[in-house]
Write a structure and sequence with these properties.
Radius of gyration of chain B: 13 Å
Structural class of chain B: mainly beta
Strand content of chain A: over 45%
Structural class of chain A: mainly beta
Number of helices of chain A: 0
Order of helices and strands of chain A: EEEEEEEEEEE
Number of strands of chain A: 11
Helix content of chain A: under 10%
Shape of chain A: globular
Shape of chain B: globular
Radius of gyration of chain A: 13 Å
Strand content of chain B: over 45%
Order of helices and strands of chain B: EEEEEEEEEEE
Largest sheet of chain A: 6 strands, mixed
Distance between the termini of chain B: 37 Å
Oligomer: heterodimer
Number of helices of chain B: 0
Number of strands of chain B: 11
Largest sheet of chain B: 7 strands, mixed
Chain lengths: 112, 113
């Protein structure tokens, strides 16, 4: 099973609104990442975080690596219809391997 | 640069059969990881290969196996298929140096009847 708790499970928002989702873990992670998955496709990396407290932006997306190293959040500002999809957080305890654990995902729906 | 290519895209098998899935990573990527995605369990790590060696393995039964070739292409095999093996199988490649930065293929949708 998964070690990450991602919330909310789903969100229905109006175009132009800001979105916030977060992820918590029971263990300390050395890496936090956020991916987006469109229907019929594999996840696409949005943001990668490697240090506690790190705040990184990618266009309208901003993610932070929590100080406790057990949480991360993703914000999307001024949402647009193409933001629709499933957003996954992912975390990794080790430094060398790609054995990431994924959250259950947040399904985002944006109403025009 | 071509992305990660997975074949076949769709597969239908019956219980007890075995299946082999193929993954061609991005050129220059030496690490290939495999994930199983189901609505109930989400994305779960199967294993990772780096330079033809299995570097890490998730919590899956021995029916799930894989290998990597010298050109970094990877195959995943599932023997004695069970109904619960129906899932989207995703392959992801990375350079191996940038921690966690995975590039996923579109997946192989496996249905076991």
């Amino acid at each position: 099973g998964q070690q990450l708790n991602q919330s909310p499970q789903s969100m229905f928002i109006q175009e132009g609104e800001d979105v916030s989702m977060n992820c918590t873990s029971s263990s300390i992670f050395n890496t936090w990442l956020w991916y987006k998955q469109d229907p019929g496709e594999g996840p696409v990396l949005l943001i990668a975080l490697y240090k506690a407290g790190e705040l990184t932006s990618n266009g309208r997306l901003t993610a932070q690596f929590g100080i406790t190293r057990k949480d991360s959040f993703l914000n999307i500002s001024a949402s647009i219809p193409s933001d629709v999809g499933i957003y996954f957080c992912a975390g990794q305890e080790t430094y060398n391997n790609n054995d990431m654990r994924f959250g259950a995902g947040t399904r985002l729906t944006v109403k025009p | 640069k071509a992305g990660v290519t997975q074949t076949p895209r769709y597969l239908i098998k019956t219980r007890g059969q075995q299946v082999t899935l193929s993954c061609s990573p991005i050129s220059g990527h030496r690490s290939v990881s495999w994930y199983q995605q189901t609505p109930g369990q989400g994305l779960q790590f199967l294993f990772e290969y780096f330079s033809e060696t299995q570097r890490n393995k998730g919590n899956f039964p021995g029916r799930f196996s894989g290998r990597q070739f010298s050109n970094s292409r990877s195959e995943m095999n599932v023997s004695t298929l069970e109904l619960g093996d129906s899932a989207l199988y995703l392959c992801a490649s990375s350079l191996g140096r940038e921690r966690g930065k995975l590039f996923f293929g579109s997946g192989t949708q496996l249905s076991v009847l």
